[in-house]
Amino acid sequence: MSTAELHTLTGAYALHALPEEERLAFERHLGACEACTQEVRELSATAARLGLAVSAVPPPGLRERVLREIATVRQEAPPHSTSERSGVAPGRAGRWSSYALAACLAAAAAFGGVAVWQNQVAQDARQEALQARQQNEQLARVLAAPDARTSSGELEGGARGTVVVSRSANRAVFLASDMARPPGGKVYQLWFNDDGSMRSAGLMDPSATDDTVLLDGPVDGASGMGITVEPAGGSEEPTTQPVALMDFPDA
Known about the structure:
single chain, alpha+beta, 2 domains, four-stranded antiparallel sheet, 8 strands, 42% helix
């Protein structure tokens, strides 16, 4: 590949669209060509900004069509390249350059939907990790609280449940072992027993037979807890008879 041809690959390189052999040759060329280095830097920055700005998901096949265009359209070489000395008319070169830049920007926009989606996934994962860490910290505080009190008992089907209550933390933790999985489309829902009035305290993992759950919400004046089988996502109030009722330990 000639030096003149290498000068035309800045856009494809900035979009990671070069075959391995051409990529390696172009990277060797970059080490000795400041003009191409600068152009790659600017095109990469433009592609990144477009990727963050565009939220629409690209239509199927757009990426392939754009990359095919890039393969057939030449960019204008940097001013010092041999193309200016070859007698090519400036107007024609300018038109090809415009087409190539448009192709590069279109490719960057096409990748933008994916970039935004990936960024959103990363943000969601960080948020979930933060929530899980905060919940684990609260759970550990309840279990390690000086006033933590424990009550255990046998549950339906031979399962065993233990509830730990800390009045100073105003929270409770439920630990279950050997629980049968709920029927398909159902979930175990936990409830605070406020003197006969049931208040939702969160859901158990329907795929786990052993689970440790920080009850959702303060203990306040609850005297115990219950477990019912509810539709996936839970219910605002119990819709079935409790499969288990447990009293909270005395303070």
